[in-house]
Specification:
about 45% helix; about 230 residues; alpha/beta; two-stranded antiparallel ribbon; globular; single chain; binds magnesium ion
Length: about 230
């Protein structure tokens, strides 16, 4: 069975800045920090890693209770922001036909590997009606470090199917160098898609097993992911 692990932002969808705005509103609500993310890079990072870096740069203590409060506000604001009309908010090209094709393919398990907190990721997917495609996932709730998420996802696969996934049948699909790098040490296949901010050239430099400009060539992508 092939186990496909999709990143969310820049790979499945673009939130049109909803995630960023929801985070900035939460920083302002909980700590009074304005424009918290102006200088902090978001790409490929997990949500809690972003929060902790902002606190570090603001010389504020990293109290778990405050971070938990931040998380609750973030979900609240995200649900509001993702529902607004936003330029650029969209599923990435080819995603819906691809998910439909893959979900109709035998011996394929669709999963998520994302730096989003689980519920935040779910809010984004649900907005576009694609949450039902994914059964298994590894999220920022599991580790602040994206590099630790492949083993978590593989463990969940084992709990669901009663067997280990073969590493050569696990595919990490993402839009940043971080997605490719988190798969390599575990011997899994890596698939880069240039629908986020990273160019095909930047992604090629990470030597993914496959590189696609986008996911519109459904047959070709299905073949890569199920071969
Ligand atoms: Mg991404």
């Amino acid at each position: 069975m092939n186990f496909l692990l999709f990143d969310i932002d820049g790979t499945l969808l673009l939130s049109g800045g909803a995630g960023k705005v929801a985070m900035e509103r939460s920083f302002e609500t909980v700590w009074g920090i304005r424009d918290a993310l102006r200088t902090v890079p978001l790409m490929g990072r997990t949500d809690p890693a972003i929060v902790r870096q902002v606190l570090r740069e603001a010389d504020l203590p990293q109290e778990d209770s405050q971070i938990e409060k931040f998380r609750e506000y973030y979900f609240w604001y995200l649900e509001e922001e993702i529902g607004k009309d936003r330029p650029g908010k969209a599923l990435c090209p080819g995603v819906l036909p691809l998910l439909n094709a893959l979900s109709g393919t035998p011996n394929v398990e669709l999963g998520l590997l994302t730096g989003n907190w689980r519920y935040g990721g779910l809010l984004k997917l649900r907005h576009f009606g694609i949450d039902g495609f994914f059964r298994i996932g590894a999220y920022a709730d599991d580790s602040m470090d994206r590099d630790a998420l492949v083993p978590v996802a593989m463990d969940r696969f084992r709990q669901t199917h009663g067997m280990n996934p073969a590493p050569e049948k696990v595919f990490v699909i993402g839009d940043t160098p971080f997605d490719i790098r988190c798969g390599k040490p575990h011997g899994v296949r890596t698939v880069a898609v240039a629908t986020g901010v990273h160019s095909a050239g930047e992604l090629q430099a990470e030597s993914p097993d496959w590189l696609f400009a986008d996911l519109t060539a459904t047959d070709e992508v299905v073949k890569a992911l199920t071969g």
